[in-house]
């Protein structure tokens, strides 16, 4: 929910801050994403070793505190600064969390990680339903109370999160990390490109779709409902994607889902009523069904550095996409929000075509069958 906090403020900032347009919206949302994304590989490297548990818990509380202060900020530069520093909190959380999921999920890594990601996407989806009515009732100043759930979660993490070390007894040497990255450079480059393109589409839609829908004469409530449908469908799609990749392989799921997302998005753009809503839900599901699968694919590429892999796939690649969103926001001010949204709708198709160059590994189901067969052969 915190990761989708700032986009819910945008319709109100348009009214409260003179000169606040698509460029400012894109910069604000992207700033949070950029700092959280580019810092994740660093936190991932640190979390590939023991200790430093306090960073995991403090990061969550840090993010909650800074985001709660955004509602009482009256100047745009201060708002962007708070967003930038708040992003470091989520950067500290995700590598450790995803690494713990990976090492505790046995040979169903994509399935369990999809559950982890789906939980996050569910919170993402609930943000418009919770925050937009809250801001309408109490104004943006009510954001100060947003620190409460973050403090509660930080306490839960401190006392109830698994205490085992995710990936080893000591931090890997930098030379070992560099060697792992070099050996998987081509595979990681394709993955990072795919994730970056998906991130441009996803982050860009978070920033520009509310503005497009508002310009289409929809109320704040209607906008929140449509965003929730897209994001909630993405959460469901994430679970389905993990299950499908378990049976048919990561590459097939990633390519197929991204290629399907673009037609669904354009179907939403050019239809009305129930059909339009259904297509938006299908588009969100297709776009996000490969999220956890790309993380697992990166962890398989550099298996000795799982938290770093998570930082690269969930963080660095997403940060590259978020940087590009700023340019998309500027373009929206020049050529129009509708045209910019159409451009974002086309990006999953490009990402799907790039994913054709991914390395094709056997599906988890086939690996389990092969291991079982090997155990039955007399040695």
Features:
mainly alpha, globular, Growth Hormone, Chain: A, 379 residues
- Overall domain count: 1
The CATH topology corresponds to Growth Hormone, Chain: A
Proportion of residues in extended strands = under 5%
With helices defined by DSSP (H or I, 4 residues minimum), what is the helix count? Answer: 15
So, the CATH homologous superfamily? Answer: MFS general substrate transporter like domains
Helix-strand pattern: HHHHHHHHHHHHHHH
In the predicted model, the low-confidence regions spanning at least 5 consecutive residues are: none
Report on this structure.
This protein has helices at residues 10-16, 22-47, 53-69, 76-104, 109-138, 147-160, 174-183, 185-215, 220-248, 250-269, 273-288, 291-301, 306-335, 337-355, 364-376. By secondary structure, the chain is mainly alpha-helical. The protein has one domain (2-376): Up-down Bundle (Growth Hormone, Chain: A). Helix 5 (109-138) runs antiparallel to helix 9. Helix content is 80%, strand content 0%. It is built from 15 helices and no strands. The mean pLDDT is 83.
Fold topology:
Blueprint: H1 10-16, H2 22-47, H3 53-69, H4 76-104, H5 109-138, H6 147-160, H7 174-183, H8 185-215, H9 220-248, H10 250-269, H11 273-288, H12 291-301, H13 306-335, H14 337-355, H15 364-376
């Amino acid at each position: 929910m915190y990761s989708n906090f700032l986009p819910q403020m945008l319709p109100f900032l348009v009214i409260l801050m003179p000169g606040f347009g698509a460029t400012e919206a894109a910069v604000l949302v992207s700033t949070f994403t950029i700092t959280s994304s580019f810092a994740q590989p660093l936190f991932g490297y640190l979390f590939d070793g023991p200790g430093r548990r306090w960073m995991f818990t403090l990061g969550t509380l840090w993010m909650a505190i800074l985001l709660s202060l955004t509602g009482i900020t009256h100047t745009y530069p201060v708002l962007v600064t708070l967003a930038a520093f708040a992003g470091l909190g989520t950067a500290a959380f995700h590598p450790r969390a995803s690494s713990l999921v990976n090492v505790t999920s046995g040979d169903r890594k994509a399935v369990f990680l999809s559950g982890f990601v789906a939980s996050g996407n569910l919170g993402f989806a609930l943000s418009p339903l919770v925050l937009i009515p809250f801001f309408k009732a109490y104004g943006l100043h009510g954001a100060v109370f947003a620190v409460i759930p973050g403090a509660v979660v930080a306490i839960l993490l401190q006392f109830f999160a698994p205490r085992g070390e995710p990936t080893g007894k000591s931090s890997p040497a930098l030379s070992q990390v560099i060697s792992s990255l070099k050996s998987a450079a081509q595979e990681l480059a394709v993955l990072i490109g795919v994730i970056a393109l998906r991130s441009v589409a996803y982050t860009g839609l978070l920033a520009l779709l509310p503005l497009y829908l508002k310009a289409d004469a929809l109320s704040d409530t209607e906008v929140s409902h449509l965003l929730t449908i897209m994001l909630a469908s993405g959460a469901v799609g994430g679970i389905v994607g993990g299950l499908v990749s378990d049976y048919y392989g990561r590459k097939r799921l990633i390519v197929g889902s991204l290629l399907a997302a673009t037609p669904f998005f354009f179907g939403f753009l050019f239809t009305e009523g129930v059909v339009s809503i259904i297509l938006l839900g299908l588009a969100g599901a297709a776009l996000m069904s490969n999220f956890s699968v790309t993380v697992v694919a990166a962890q398989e590429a550099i298996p000795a550095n799982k938290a770093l892999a998570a930082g690269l796939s969930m963080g660095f690649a997403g940060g590259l996409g978020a940087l590009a969103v700023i340019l998309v926001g500027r373009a929206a001010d020049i050529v129009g929000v509708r045209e910019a949204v159409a451009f974002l709708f086309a990006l999953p198709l490009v990402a799907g075509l790039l994913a054709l160059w991914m390395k094709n590994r056997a599906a988890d189901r086939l690996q389990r069958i092969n291991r079982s067969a090997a155990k039955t052969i007399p040695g």
